[in-house]
Amino acid sequence: MAKITLDNLAHSYLPNPKSEEDYALKELNHDWIDGEAYALLGASGCGKSTLLNIISGLLNPSQGRILFDDKDVTDAPTAARNIAQVFQFPVVYDTMTVRDNLAFPLRNRGADPKYIAERVQQIAAMIGMEEVLNRKARGLTADAKQKISLGRGMVREDVNALLFDEPLTVIDPHMKWELRTQLKSLHHDFGHTMIYVTHDQTEALTFADKVVVMYDGRVVQIGTPQELFERPAHTFVGYFIGSPGMNLFDAQIKGDMARVAGVPVPLGRHYAPQGGRLQLGVRPEFVRLVQGAEGVPAKVTRVEDVGRHRIIRLDVAGQTASAIVDEDVPVPEDAQRIAFDPAGINVYADDWRLRGAGEAA
């Protein structure tokens, strides 16, 4: 296990990058704590796999350093970093049995045969492959092969880090849930530093202690699932996390009041004067349909019943928005306005969240 330090790290696939826009991975400085489980979350092309490949040694960064426990490994080959990596598509030895595939990393390092047998049995139970240990990998389904690949990545207990690059893409949905649970259990039992790349917010939020959200080559927020939900540091985080994502309303802001579509909205905190584009970010859970003269004008465009609650789709001054109401809460037929819970309002200037007066860092 290791603390992983990213020091002034950036990468461009161009030979002579001239501006920040030329970088697939923009400058990053961060310590990833020894023994924690991280998820790299973002849309395709945002730089997740680039960062993972730099950590693993498959890619040398254009600038900066990577350190394991304060030791510079920037130029060290993958084998010298003592990491295990599981890729999006299964990598298995077809001519070997499942047992030999799982045992291979341990045999390659000269581990005791008794320990190998015990560890392989333990991992096989974890990935649900005890019944096929003596079968050749050739002919197994893609998801079975990916389970072998996962198992081979997890079989070593002495690794500095376990890196997963969208490892559950080819796994069926029910097995995905089981394997995520087992990965969490493995992390709890052995305390490996784990980094898990995914574009799926459910995978990220259920797997990780801390989620690293990436957008356009930049890390825009690192936080717990609760922090990302309640206080998104960037509008992308609010949009990408949550179903539906956070509503964004253009606003004018003065002190502790905002105006949305010309209507005053109390913010609950005082904000210093700001330039740029100002917006209120309000998750659908904090939007209420109201009757009467108070509130922001809104038109209900449709109601979606998703079982445990209903999603109310709205038009607010030409902008689309959503509200969530419990299944047993009636939707007023004459509701033409919405109000916001001040505790659920975030304020943004040019997409970055502002801190209100008295708010903790």
Task: Please explain how this structure is put together.
It comes from Sulfitobacter aestuarii. Keywords: ATP-binding, Cell membrane, Membrane, Nucleotide-binding, Transport. This is ABC transporter ATP-binding protein. The protein has 361 residues and is an alpha+beta fold. The protein has eight helices and 22 strands. Strands 6-7-8-3-9-10 form a six-stranded mixed β-sheet, sandwiched between helices. A four-stranded antiparallel β-sheet has the order 2-1-4-5, covered by helices on one side. β7, α5 and β8 form a beta-alpha-beta unit. α2 crosses α3, α2 runs parallel beside α4 and α3 crosses α4. The longest helix has 18 residues. The model has no long low-confidence stretch (mean pLDDT 89).
Kindly, what is the distance between the CA atoms of the first and last residues, rounded to a whole number of angstroms? 30 Å
- What's the β-strand tally? 22
The structural domain count equals 2
Gross morphology is globular
Major sheet attributes: 6 strands, mixed
Low-confidence stretches: none
Note the run of SSEs as H and E.
EEEHEEEHHHEHEHEEHHEEEEEEEEEEEE
Summed up, the helix count is 8
Rounded mean pLDDT score = 89
Alpha-beta content class? alpha+beta
Brief sketch in words of this structure:
The protein has 361 residues and is of the alpha+beta class. The chain contains eight helices and 22 strands. It folds into two domains: 4-237, P-loop containing nucleotide triphosphate hydrolases (Rossmann fold), CATH 3.40.50; 247-354, no CATH class.
Features:
six-stranded mixed beta sheet, 361 residues, alpha+beta, Rossmann fold, four-stranded antiparallel beta sheet
